[in-house]
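Limitations

Structures in this collection are predictions, not experimental determinations, and the ligand pose is part of the prediction. Treat each record accordingly. The example that follows, with flavin-adenine dinucleotide as the small molecule, is included so readers can see exactly what is and is not provided: the inputs are given verbatim, and the output is the predicted complex.
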Amino acid sequence: MQRRRFLQFSLWAAAALPSHYVLAARTGRAPDVDAVTGNGQQISLRGSDLDELAGQLQGQLLLAGDQGYDKARLLLNPSFDKHPALIAMPVNAADVQSAVTFAKAHALLLAVKCGGHSSSGQSSCDKGMLIDLANLRGVRVDAEHRRAWVQGGSLLGQVDQACVAQGLVTPLGTVSHTGVGGLTLGGGFGRLARRYGLAIDNLVSVDVVTADGRLVHASEQENADLFWGVRGGSGNFGVVTMFEFRLHPRPPQVIAGTISFPFARAREVMGVWADYASVASDDLYVDPSLVLPPAGAPGMVALEVCYSGPAADAEAALAPIRKLGKSDRDTLKTMDYLAVQRANDAGDSRAIASYMKSGFVTRLSGDLMTAIVDGIRPDPRRTTVLFFQHCGGASSRVPETATAFAHRDAIANMMAVVAYPTVADPKDHIAATRSYWKGLEPFTRGFYVNDMAREVTAAEISESFRGNYQRLAALKAKYDPTNLFRLNANVKPAQA
Ligand code: FAD
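Predicted complex:
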């Protein structure tokens, strides 16, 4: 039955594609191209092999200089400026299979891109192959059975819009241009996660192109080991071409907005949040942030709120925040959930040249609050932000070993971000963040693979997957023994 729905969806998706995607396969002979393998060996790809690949694709194959190459190679964070040797732009799962088979045959360094939000810059690469899923986007909702089928390159906003139009929702992230692919494979926290769980907790099945080029369906019933691994195991096991999500009925509106206070009240506001973050109702999601803007503008401490429960209970749920009294700004009001989901699309500091360190916290101690407030330093050349994504609630009531995502005990994901002009030399900004983070890191327990810093080591990744790492390594050996999919929170294949 599920298989039949998938096939129906594929036909629908092909019919829905603008014809130029289907017809724009590369024409003309490709030159030989210098490339690099996953192990860093320099190789030359023959033009005839590239022509053969282009002939297999319904979508495009792009080389440097081709129209669309520069758009495809870049990520949201412009400080990552990488130049792949070739870029495949699949329009269907068969294209993904051809691209993966080619990458495997040539042992190419391989990157996979969905929304391009990677904090470690791993969804593009230098001299390897990039599979950019930007033309593999579409959502089909079955309102009766409360399911959504989402193609592997889709963005969150597309899913939210299609679901809300049917009076339904699935919990995804907080910025609508984030990719469903990366967000879901790492876990997927959002404004409704405390109520409905993480994105992976609402995943029913996936279609994955594995390293051997097969298209594999995985769910609790079929290839259950792979299904366990993709729920939190990052992009380690293949290219997901389709996500099937469970949907929840809900009214289109929530109570949401931002309440901000002068920076001088940071300790008090953070203390109040620390006291009730772990005991708040599942309907309440509150992300605090400390923001120090550039050029000496006044700093602030802000609480971004989304309350999704019954309106009659809202004031009781919000009482601890209200007790903080007079604020500088309060935009809290009844809003369309879709508008809330788009509200930070432009303003998120991670959406410009930025650097981030992050880690999960399981306890919001007084010492941590002191380290946060005393350690943060303004600098006229950059925006410095320390922010927390509120976890817990339904997302914490799933056993640590039920999915590859292990951080069920986290009450918040803490992120220190600096944002700076793209033209600036980032060294100083990065050094300042690392120095601030030194004081915060002892309070963390592992990190979110989706907010991984650039310089994370293999040992740190292994430690962060906690008790799930060995099982992930065994799965990796089964599905990707040569570590083709290595540009992610990489799990090394277990040795036989
Ligand atoms: P990409 O850079 O395209 O991909 C990241 C990695 O995911 C790739 O390297 C690849 O390994 C893998 N990948 C992507 N798609 C596929 C696929 N279809 N098949 C196989 N592998 C794939 N996270 C949250 O949980 N909640 C939030 O609210 C949230 N908000 C964010 C807001 C901003 C502005 C930013 C920059 C990040 C945010 N994040 C959030 C973090 C986000 O989850 C990660 O950056 C995630 O990797 C983004 O997914 P993407 O598809 O856009 O990224």
